[in-house]
């Protein structure tokens, strides 16, 4: 069947009519304002949202491509990097760059270590060593930049296995990777031990704190037993952290930080021979929206340490209440021992993917995971008043499936179950490619 084509209208449509159409289309999206989603959106309330919009709109047209034309953006970016480096235990030598998100920050880090390995160690076939729990952005970076990913299994606690990492290092290794925390199970890898190994082997150590970077420092200050995971751990040479997650900035704001300027230079791209002039770019993109840079700066200043401490305390209180409630549902168990506001849970008594289907019928948007099959929860301020309802719906979903086992054969559960068990991962990849094709078809 041929794809339907949508064309630019011959005559422009009234802007008010378009706005009404947008509102109507928007009604079908996930209900994040009321805490019905467990990922994707980090909401700190309508007052803060309106503040971010005002800041963003002030710099709506400005372009971070040329900070010399917009010295305001140059200042904002420099100060975001400085505040972030200080928060993450960096000294005066720590530098970095802002990016559009965690994936770009990770891409830039991997590219940096590829170039560093080539320049400092003459490595032509670079490799990076990472646990299977590391974010897929590292796989994307490996694919884009021809850096071989060498994987190892996590331990029974779902954290990176340092001994297994050691076995994977060879003369082509340029980088070790650890997560703080890992996205699937919310656990912080043993960063000090991994960093010490990197120091011993004289290679890079990148900490992916895209998810936890702007929450873990304050959770640790509250007294939770968070191990060192930032520049305070000797051997850590770079960190990625997303301001638009628990920093509650506008979408499109992340940082990648390096131990010193000499390492960061390998991230930059410079082309001196273009007829259009000397071209230099700090990160992946050329044009960089000024609004997201300004909003990140504004968010950090608006909350301050005291505001982020209050957010962290509230988020962790919600998390503990929710985690305890989920674990109290008969047959349901938490995966591992999560360190902050992210956790996964499963059950052996019914199909956990069928549980997800039942929860979605009750208005929840929840992510499904594999190895092991489980459901994923990422707690934000938006979940303060709905945790009891979620636990109640989870309990009733599990009970319904116990009483109606044939219900597990309906909905999306059979598909997710099949995808998780097919040994030919090439077949699963082909299915995913076809799914992506369908997503971007009119």
Specify the CATH class of the largest domain: Alpha Beta
Q: Strand order of the main beta sheet, please?
A: 1-7-6-5-4-2-3
Large-scale geometry = globular
Counting helices, strands and paired strands, the structural category is alpha/beta
Please tell me how large the radius of gyration is.
Answer: 23 Å
Q: Could you name the ranges where pLDDT drops below 50 across 5 or more consecutive residues?
A: none
Number of helices: 14
**How much is the average pLDDT?**
94
End-to-end distance, in Å?
12 Å
Number of individual domains: 2
Overall strand count: 13
CATH H-level homologous superfamily name of the largest domain? Type I PLP-dependent aspartate aminotransferase-like (Major domain)
Tell me the helix content: 40-55%
CATH level 3 topology of the largest domain: Aspartate Aminotransferase, domain 2
CATH architecture assignment name of the largest domain? 3-Layer(aba) Sandwich
Portion of residues in beta strands equals: 5-15%
């Amino acid at each position: 069947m041929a794809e339907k084509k949508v064309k630019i209208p011959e005559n422009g449509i009234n802007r008010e009519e378009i706005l009404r159409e947008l509102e109507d289309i928007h009604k079908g999206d996930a209900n994040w304002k009321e805490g019905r989603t467990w990922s994707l959106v980090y909401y700190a309330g309508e007052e803060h949202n309106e503040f971010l919009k005002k800041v963003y709109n002030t710099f709506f047209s400005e372009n971070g491509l040329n900070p010399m034309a917009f010295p305001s953006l140059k200042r904002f970016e420099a100060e975001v990097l400085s505040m972030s480096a200080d928060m993450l235990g960096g000294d005066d030598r720590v530098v970095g760059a802002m990016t559009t998100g965690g994936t770009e920050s990770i891409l830039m880090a991997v590219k940096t270590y590829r170039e560093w390995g080539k320049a400092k160690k003459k490595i032509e076939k670079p490799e990076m060593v990472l646990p299977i729990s590391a974010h897929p952005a590292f796989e994307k970076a490996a694919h884009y930049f021809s850096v071989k990913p060498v994987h190892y299994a996590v331990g029974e606690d779902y954290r990176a296995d340092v001994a297994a990492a050691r076995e994977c290092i060879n003369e082509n290794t340029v980088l070790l990777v650890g997560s703080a925390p890992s996205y699937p199970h919310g656990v912080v890898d043993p960063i000090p031990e991994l960093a010490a190994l990197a120091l011993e082997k004289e290679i890079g150590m990148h900490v992916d704190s895209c998810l936890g970077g702007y929450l873990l420092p304050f959770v640790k200050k509250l007294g939770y037993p968070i191990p060192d995971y930032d520049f305070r751990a000797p051997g850590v040479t770079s960190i990625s952290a997303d301001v638009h997650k628990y920093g509650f900035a506008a979408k499109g704001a992340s940082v990648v930080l390096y131990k010193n300027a000499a390492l960061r230079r390998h991230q930059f791209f410079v082309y001196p021979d273009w007829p259009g002039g000397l071209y230099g770019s700090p990160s992946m993109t050329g044009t960089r929206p000024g609004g997201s840079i300004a909003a990140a700066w504004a968010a950090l200043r608006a909350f301050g340490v005291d505001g982020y401490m209050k957010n962290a305390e509230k988020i962790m209180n919600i998390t503990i209440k929710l985690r305890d409630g989920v674990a109290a549902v008969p047959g349901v168990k938490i995966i591992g021992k999560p360190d902050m506001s992210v956790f996964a849970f499963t059950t052996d008594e019914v199909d956990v993917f069928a549980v997800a289907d039942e929860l979605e019928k009750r208005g929840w948007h929840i992510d499904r995971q594999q190895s092991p099959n489980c459901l994923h929860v990422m707690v934000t301020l938006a979940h303060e008043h709905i945790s009891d309802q979620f636990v109640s719906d989870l309990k009733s979903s599990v009970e319904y499936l116990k009483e109606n086992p044939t219900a597990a054969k309906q909905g999306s559960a059979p598909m997710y179950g099949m995808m998780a068990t097919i040994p030919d991962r090439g077949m699963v990849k082909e299915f995913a490619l076809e799914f992506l094709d369908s997503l971007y078809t009119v």
